[in-house]
């Protein structure tokens, strides 16, 4: 057997195994350029999530809408997550990647706990509203906001996934998953608010908020475990 055949044999065996996660070894200059692009995208995320949180909470409280209140609180949590990601990348630039990942893991678990608490609040509040048969007022501002959030979240998620692949960042990909979840939350809220406007059923807001709970729990579990969606 020739020397080249001996070298090729282990490579052939390795091809039969699932490929490991290999983070891209970009030159430092290229990685810094990608990180700066991530900063710009996260600034856009923070700007929109700030608007989303304020409008959803104000209109939700005014209308007594549990769907909008839950949507607004989730926006606050995602706003914190975006800020943590920016802080993590800035720490990486100064102190290295290992230090920033430890800090991010702690912050991610705190975000997971907040999402679990939000899910519990929604279940208790929705159950109480259904028990006493209390309806909510329709919010046009909330409907417009959640309708706008669907394409905006899709845009942010797609670009975050692209940059996460370039950067080899699980944290950014997890942040993209949160944007995807927010898009689904927006869709649920739109359906709930539209049904409330068209049919006037008193229970649509409470039922719609319960539909959000599964998404909140899923997002919280992923944040706690440090996982990200594999098919996003």
**Average of per-residue pLDDT values:** 78
Helix content: over 70%
Cα gyration radius (Å): 21 Å
How does the major sheet shape up? none
Q: In total, how many domains does the architecture comprise?
A: 1
Structural class: mainly alpha
Strand content: under 5%
Write down the secondary-structure element order.
HHHHHHH
Low-confidence stretches: 6-27
How would you describe this structure to a colleague?
The protein has 232 residues and is an all-alpha fold. It has one domain (28-132, 144-225). It contains seven helices and no strands. Helix 2 packs antiparallel against helix 3 (66-95), helix 3 (66-95) packs antiparallel against helix 4 (97-132) and helix 6 runs antiparallel to helix 7.
